[in-house]
Amino acid sequence: MAKFTPAQGLEQSLARMVAPAVHRIGQKVEVEAKRLAPPTKRWVTMGDDRVRPTHVAAQGQVVPGNLRFTINSMDWDRKHRGVGASTYMLEPRDRTSRAIANIKNCRCTTHKDPDGIARHINTGQPVVAGKKVTVTVSVQAPQVVEAEVGTVYPGNMVADGTHFMSRAAAIVAARR
Ligand SMILES: [Zn+2]
After folding, report:
1. Where are the alpha helices (DSSP H) in the chain?
2. Contacts for 76 with CB less than 8 Å, ≥ 6 apart
3. Cβ pair 12, 128 in contact under 8 A
4. How far apart are CA 82 and CA 60, in angstroms?
5. How far is the centre of ligand 1, averaged over its atoms, from the C-alpha of 60 (Å)?
6. How many angstroms is it from 103 CA to the middle of ligand 1?
7. pLDDT at 176 over 80
8. C-alpha–C-alpha distance, residues 78 and 48, integer Å
9. Backbone angles phi, psi at 109, to 5 degrees
């Protein structure tokens, strides 16, 4: 019976050899993730003295496209519409937020940034540990976990996840 004994350090040098290929796979996942990432949206007021205080406070708030803005509630909505301290709006004048006072005569708009999340997606350098090669594709941005997997707001308002990272990985894996 022949017994193969790898030369000392062979597995480690093999790992170093395949590291660039693993890195390229990571970069392909990054490309797909950037393509699939949702935009971000920013709350923009008219900026004049007629903007209600709850929307002045929301000026500049940025959230991933599948999520809701968190807006301070107005007293009337708290008394009559059963909203809590915050009202959750997909966009200005959003009726699904259940607010009435807080959407009436609102002139606010949103500004969309298609790369708001995509620009934060990066592929790390390969890390060789023993016979294992690891490449991490990561994204760090506000509420990015909720952008990926979704969330539920008070009042059982569901925001579906976009699953852009897991879909990107699945697309690249399916090509191989
Ligand atoms: Zn407004």
Report:
1. 10-36, 53-56, 75-80, 144-149, 164-175
2. 100, 101
3. yes
4. 26
5. 12
6. 7
7. no
8. 26
9. -135, 180
Ion ligand 1 neighbours (CB, 5 A) are: 55, 106, 108
If phi over 0 gives left and psi between -120 and 50 gives alpha, with beta otherwise, what is residue 60?
Answer: left
CA–centroid distance, residue 133 to ligand 1 (Å): 51
**126-156: per-residue pLDDT in tens?**
999 988 999 999 999 999 999 999 999 999 9
Contact 116, 64 (CB under 8 A): yes
**Residue closest to 171 by CA, chosen among 34, 17, 67:** 34
Task: Give the pLDDT of residue 131.
Answer: 87
Given a cut of 70, is residue 91 above it in pLDDT? yes
Output the average pLDDT for the chain.
95
Alpha-carbon span 89 to 173, nearest angstrom? 36
Q: Which two tokens stand for residue 89?
A: 């709006």
Phi-psi region of 150 (alpha: psi -120 to 50; beta: other; left: phi over 0): left
